[in-house]
Design a protein that fits this description.
- The strands form three sheets. This protein has a seven-stranded mixed β-sheet with strand order 4-10-9-8-7-5-6, with helices on both faces.
- The chain has 14 helices and 15 strands.
- Helix content is 37%, strand content 17%.
- It is an alpha/beta fold and 427 residues long.
- It folds into two domains: 162 residues, Aspartate Aminotransferase, domain 1; 262 residues, Aspartate Aminotransferase, domain 2 (3-Layer(aba) Sandwich), CATH 3.40.640.
- The chain binds pyridoxal-5'-phosphate.
């Protein structure tokens, strides 16, 4: 498979080594089977997408029923009924009584729709994003993504009015956090001479930066600063939304409702579907359509994706998955903390719901242990565990399993993760 792939796919997309990747053939619940018949426990949820598990029955039924009728429509011209049904189900999630959405296929598209909306609202093009942020890799979203390796080769194509503020780092003291907020206040009020900031975009928990959780009250302080400056607050909940953190949305832990919300990943139950959602008072910054949408795409409101999305939202509720995430997340966090307590290089095991990070650092200097989580993930793969490294230095093991992961699977995997981490640290 690797050899065949290398002859047909552009370089740089799939990292091919003698051991990795494994080629998936089938998956159910929290298990994945590869083409050689090996079975893995999936702690990635396939990038956090398989919220209701892999191949969830209700979603499969929804896709099957829809595929008998209509698999593609004309999203913004002659919309499929499935789009209306999905949008109604999405609106019913809240958090606004009059929510309006723009659909897309990828998370990056939802971010771009939110950034466009903010510009229509206040006309101020500047954007405040955060160090460590990951909002996608299309050019508009990439401008707000922080990591140099993603941005570097394309800098000349990126909008230059994005400023990056410090995101609270794990273990950081109140003084540093206040300094970061002061910088944001200054950028929002006085400005640095660049484009005036009209939008602040943040992940309520940073995922790819290594499951970084801001301290209590941080998002509230940020919201105050943003709103005092009459800018818009966008929460990118593409990773943290839909139950991942043990609440329907990550912001519910803090009680700060943003102006705009970006959703993606699990939204389509495994099919490509994303949304930028906001209350009518904000979304109505978009002018009425005069016959041709100024923002749309060929697959907007794709009926198959919408039917899968509607079925997924039903599963989320019927399976009490948000609560499951909270309870199983506490179990996973507790067991991991206990198992890893004696390893000095495990600086922190943190998490909320089934979104957990194991932060590996030099115990004497506190410096991130470069690639330690990459090595641990490689060792875990040999033991039948799919898990991903995260963090700027590949020093955080990131766990975002399907919310249907069972207690016995959690109990099985924790000692194996401990072994993999010990092995990686010994290398
Ligand atoms: C927080 C966040 N925003 C945006 C994206 C981009 O989504 P996509 O890869 O679907 O474009 C991701 C993807 O990992 C993400 O985690």
């Amino acid at each position: 498979m690797a050899d065949r792939l290398s002859h047909v796919e552009s370089r740089n997309i799939t990292h091919l080594t003698p051991e990795s990747p494994v080629f998936w053939e089938a998956a159910r619940g929290a298990n994945v089977r590869d083409v050689d018949g090996n079975v893995y426990l999936d702690l990635t949820g396939a990038f956090g997408v398989s919220v209701a598990g892999h191949t969830p029955e209700g979603v499969v039924d929804g896709i099957r029923a829809q595929s008998d009728r209509l698999i593609h429509g004309m999203g913004d011209v002659h919309p499929p009924a499935a789009k209306v049904e999905f949008l109604e189900a999405l609106a019913a999630l809240g958090p606004w009584p009059d929510s309006r959405a723009i659909l897309g296929s990828s998370g990056s598209e939802a971010v771009e729709a939110a950034l466009k909306t903010a510009l229509l609202v206040n006309g101020r093009p500047g954007i405040l994003a955060f160090e460590g942020a990951y909002h996608g890799l299309t050019l508009g979203s990439l401008a707000t993504t922080y990591r140099e390796d993603f941005r570097g080769p394309f800098l000349s194509r990126l909008y230059e009015g994005v400023r990056f503020a410090p995101y609270p780092k794990p273990g950081e003291g109140k003084k540093e956090i206040k300094r970061g907020l002061d910088k944001i206040r200054w950028l929002l009020r006085e400005g640095d001479g660049g484009d005036e900031v009209g939008a602040v975009i943040i992940e309520p928990i940073q995922g790819r930066a290594g499951v970084r959780i801001p301290p209590p009250g941080y998002l509230e302080a940020l919201a105050d600063l943003t709103w005092n400056a009459k800018a818009l607050l966008i929460f990118d909940e593409i990773f943290t939304g839909l139950g991942r953190t043990g609440a329907l949305f990550g912001f519910l832990h803090e009680g700060v409702v943003p102006d705009l919300l970006c959703l993606g990943k699990g939204l389509g139950g495994g099919l490509p579907l994303s949304a930028c959602v906001g209350p009518a008072r904000i979304m109505n910054a978009w002018p009425p359509s005069r016959g041709e949408a100024i923002h749309t795409s060929t697959f907007l409101g794709n009926p198959l994706a919408c039917a899968a999305g509607t079925a997924f939202l039903k599963e989320l509720a019927a399976g009490d998955l948000v609560n499951r995430s909270k309870i199983m997340g506490e179990t996973l966090l507790g067991l991991l903390r206990e198992a890893l307590a004696a390893i000095p290089s495990v600086a922190e095991v943190r998490g909320r719901g089934l979104f957990v990070g194991v932060d590996l650092r030099d115990p004497s200097t506190g410096a991130p242990l470069r690639k330690a989580a990459v090595r641990a993930a490689t060792l875990a793969l040999r033991e039948g565990i799919l898990v991903l490294p995260a963090g700027a230095y590949g020093h955080v093991l990131e766990l975002s399993p399907p919310l249907v992961i069972r207690q016995d699977q959690v109990e099985w995997v924790v000692p194996k993760l401990e072994e993999a981490i010990r092995g990686a640290l010994a290398e």
